Amino acid sequence: MVMPEPEMLEVDVWRGGCDGSGRFQTYTVPRQDAQTVLDVVTWIQRKLDPTLAYRFSCRVGMCGSCAMTVNGRARWTCRTHVAKVASGKRLQIAPLANLTVVRDLVVDMREFFDKWAKAGGQFTPTASRRDDFARVAPESPARREVDAAIECIGCGICYASCDVVAWNPAYLGPAALNRAWTLQNDVRDGGRVERLAAVAGDAGCHACHTQAACTERCPKQLSPTASIAGLKRMAARAVLKGEL
Amino acid sequence: MSARGETRLWLAQRASAAVLALCVLVHLATMIVAVNGGLTAADILGRTRGNPAWAAFYAVFVAAVAIHAPIGLRTIASEWLQWRGRGADACWLVVGVALFVIGLRAVAAVVL
Amino acid sequence: MRTAGWRNRDHPSYWAFLVHRVSGLALALFLPLHFWALGQAIAGQAALDDFLRWTEQPLLRASEVALVFLLAAHLAGGLRLLLVEFVGWHRQAPRSWVAVAAGVALFCALTFALNLY
Asked: Which of residues 70-99 of C touch A (CB under 8 A)?
């Protein structure tokens, strides 16, 4: 009995380093049921081309390490089914945009996290171990704002999808500003004055033009657009009150 | 620019936008009505000449636009032409003043 | 480093942004011409009338309709932005606002054109 040929997928994978010599290389990969884009990349690296560099970790949609550009849009490859995105049996996989390419599908995330720090993305404690637990009412308006934005795992998809990041090299970006917003609404945080100054400068929240690609692409359904609008309101109120 | 300066620019942009929203609504309605059957100088000047209400309206309109447009152009220049910094800011300030001057001249032309 | 490209820009908010920016730019460039044209009245009613008659050519009339559309579009987009920034963003609402803004702008331009011709 002759087994039917497996259906094949043509995959264009971006290869190259940071020297501008990158180009797409085509591989032919067999289709499988419930195949994800990460499955495809792994198959290529294991069976066809061991020189292919790529990042992954949990492979179950929790860590965000596998974020890449798939058919022009930044996605978690472990949570992207080939069936959903392969337009006419063809797939295009490239590294995340707006970040320096280390090699092939791997990008240098340092700028992303440096901006996180620049935006004041760290909690500044005010209590010590001798104090009682802080009481934060979950239904309070401030805590609701935090809860709506806190689930960010720093995957970089929003940063890679934002045109302002591409147009303004110093722009802090949606993830860093989103994290700053959660801390600005955290009643326990003691760094809110400095952080507001950090995020309201010329490469901060005011550079957002509500293109909302970040909100469109976020795999955790967060809305950095809303967080950044919140920062704009906060900065405006502070200026009008003479506090900024 | 500092956080305070950038926030003030943002506030000026939004405040002038709110003023312009009202002015533009009036302006659009006026244009749509006035242009009926063709527009002549008499149509325009008959409405505006010697009328303090129109004078005040257009003066406010010009002031708001002179604030709003340069701030927008500054953003576009910084993002699409990579032109930013003190020099650029000074240029846009001059543009704002220039718009205000030629705008007031235009208002004077039709109300005096 | 690579840039995101046009496939990444296929959502309503991006088009709203682009229309808003391009219309603002066009209006800002048009404004000095507008002020100059009205300033012609300083030289007298006849000078303004001369200019207005010059604008009755088909290409210029079409440009006037386009300008009205750009003005209405910039206003509508601006109102949507003010809503997002001051009232807030709740997932689906801003997408419908884009549609509303587009509709309003089109309505204004068409009414103007109707009156013009």
From this structure: 81, 84-86, 88-91, 94
ipTM score assigned to the predicted complex:
0.92
Tens-digit pLDDT profile for residues A42-66: 999 999 999 999 999 999 999 999 9
A101 Rama sector, left if φ>0, alpha if ψ -120 to 50, beta otherwise: beta
Residue type, B105: R
Taking every pair of Cα atoms in chain C, the longest distance, rounded to a whole number of angstroms, is 59
Helices B41-48 and C45-54, axial angle in degrees (round to 10): 130
Contacts of C80 (CB under 8 A, 6+ apart): C16, C94, C97, C98, C100, C101
CB within 8 A of B34, min separation 6: which ones? B43, B44, B47
Distance, CA of A34 to CA of A149 (rounded, Å): 31
Q: What percent of chain A stands above pLDDT 90?
A: 91
Each residue's pLDDT tens digit, A188-213: 999 999 999 999 997 999 999 999 99
Helix (H, G, I), strand (E, B) or coil at A41: helix
DSSP, res A90: E
Annotate B61-86 with b (16+ C-beta within 10 A) or e (fewer).
bbbbbbbbbbbbbbbbbbbeeeebee
The CA distance from A59 to A73, in Å, is: 19
Task: Collect all residues of chain C within an 8 Å Cβ-Cβ radius of residue B20.
Answer: 75, 78
